[in-house]
Amino acid sequence: AGCEKEPSSYMWIYILLGNMLRGIGETPITPLGISYLDDFAKEESVPVYVACLHTIAMMGPMFGFLLGSLCAKLYVDVGFVDPGSITITPQDSRWVGAWWLGFLIGGAASFLSAIPFCFLPKSLKKPEEDKKDKTSHGLLGNTSAVRNKLSPEKTKPRKSSAMLKGKRFLWSLKKVLGNRMYFTFLCCSLLQFSGFIGFVTYKPKYMEQQYGQSTSKSNFLIGMTTLPPVGLGIFLGGLIMKKYKMSILGATKFSFTMSFLSYAIGLLHFFVGCDNYAVAGMTVSYE
Question: Could you say which residues form the signal peptide (predicted)?
């Protein structure tokens, strides 16, 4: 009974709120960034730009694993205790690395990288739009005039703009999810990312338990061997799409072929591993 203690620290609440704020800040980058590139870049250059965006996004976790590897080599109370008084090493199961240091470094880096976004213009012009400004404005003006004549009741002030915005959002969401191609792509992306996130999350711990590696070395190996090839593949995929100017059907066939080869090679992981440790009472008898 003396060994049973209730958790008395509520620091996990701060970590939860910090990750929530981080997610709120990071979420708009991918959808709005891709839309920004798609709207204001040349059509043939969009695949390369999107590939660069995703490649840079993959570089972040790679540097995160390397940073985690460095922090794991430092004792959790680094800066508060004398290093000479620490009698255990990172290979010891009782060792706890400076996990909190990565949050401070990552937060500072995120804050600094967010500053350039404040200087982006709200809107840009495509090169071909410069010649069509007058025609476009005239066409839009005529269209709006016709609409006002056909539906004068729509020009009346709205009493419940929030309700209309909600209905408009639901209508747009229904229209998007009703697109079979987009819905299929969404399901495929969910399956891919679910497998990839589980792979990256649990592979370091697997390497620690099965191969006797330290936390620092496991994070280093994951960061150097898993994520760079993924980023390189994304970038090469964008270059291939630009070079051959693939249509939607061609890109779908290309994606299917590469995904099938990836899954086929991924099955080889089932044949890699070591025997489990002999644990009395679990894998072997007490005798």
Answer: none
